[in-house]
Give the backbone structure.
Amino acid sequence: MKVKKIPQRMCTGCTEMKSKKELIRIVKNNEGEISVDLTGKKPGRGAYICKDVACLEKAFKTKRLEKNLNSKIAEEIYDKLKEEVANGK
């Protein structure tokens, strides 16, 4: 029997490799709109963050999410991420 490969992604906050299902995806589409992608299937450039408040704070302070997506991230996106992280625990 073939073992299924589990996709790994790097958390933008703690820079640890984790399985894709453990992380929240933030996506920038072709129009430059940034949104939280809970399905992980939206088209566009993606960045990942752990479901941990400390990782989110670290990514926010170092502006790593903005660097990964090459654009300014609105405060509403961070608020939505904080809400998702709080609900995910």
